[in-house]
Automatic annotation (TrEMBL):
Domain Serine aminopeptidase S33: 53-145
Organism per entry: Acidovorax facilis
GO terms, molecular function: hydrolase activity
Stated name of the protein: Alpha/beta hydrolase
Record has Transferase as a keyword: no
Xref: Pfam families: Hydrolase_4 (PF12146)
SUPFAM superfamilies given in the database record: alpha/beta-Hydrolases
Domain of life: Bacteria
Alphabetized Gene3D superfamilies for the sequence: alpha/beta hydrolase (3.40.50.1820)
Keywords: Hydrolase
């Protein structure tokens, strides 16, 4: 993504995990990044990778706000070993990445973000990690609620969670995300006329994420 992008090989339950780490842009006077953001990509069987434009947009937003951003390939994608596991193994991949790039013992702030299938997996990681007090922010974009059983967002995580969806998403209908969010009374930010991949609207998506991160301090 930039000159400060570092390629990593991490260890996962199915073997090696290919990842990239984008260095944070530090504000004047900041001695260290705000934390580490782990970002999950779309469906592995439909071309989802760490190079997806929405995933890169999420990484840029976090980097701009002073976070180190880590993108990784799920099992069976790129240089990551293993085979597609319908979200269960992919959740274990995500949790393994978290523990290696932001170990619990280090006490770093963590953000979790995902797009489409990646948002579904991220929802379950959020449910698992939030009770441990490790997660500071969450961003779910194009959440695949019509295709998978997305986990509810913990009630006390609502103010720290941004959910974004395109009005005209024809891959995951907005109605499906609203059906998931409604019982939780979880707000959903809708991008008018937006499709699943937010063509022509990635700058707006980035700005929404930046605004959320800056508002949370």
């Amino acid at each position: 993504m930039n000159a400060q992008t570092e390629r990593l090989t991490l260890s996962g339950p199915a073997g090696a995990i290919e990842a990239v780490r984008d260095a944070a842009t530090l504000a004047d006077g900041a001695a260290a990044p705000r934390g580490v953001a782990i970002i999950a990509h779309p469906h592995p069987l439909f071309g989802g990778t760490i190079d997806n434009k929405v995933v890169q947009t999420l990484a840029r937003a976090f980097v701009q706000c002073g976070w180190t951003a880590v993108r990784f390939n799920f099992r069976g994608v790129g240089g990551t070993e293993g085979v597609y596991d319908e979200g269960q193994g992919e959740l274990q991949d995500l949790l393994a990445v978290v523990e290696q790039v932001a170990p619990a013992a280090a006490g770093q702030r963590i953000a979790l973000a995902g797009f489409s299938f990646g948002a579904f997996v991220t929802s379950h990681a959020l449910a698992a990690l939030w009770p441990q007090g490790r997660v500071d922010q969450a961003v779910l974009v194009g959440t695949a609620a019509s295709r998978f059983a997305v986990a509810p967002v913990p009630p006390d995580a609502h103010l720290r969670t941004l959910v974004v969806h395109g009005e005209h998403d024809d891959t995951v209908p907005l109605a499906a995300v609203m059906d998931w969010a409604r019982p939780q009374i979880l707000p959903v930010t809708v991008i008018p006329a937006g499709g699943h991949f937010f063509h022509g609207q990635l700058p707006l998506l980035k700005n929404l994420v930046v605004r959320h991160l800056q508002s949370q301090g």
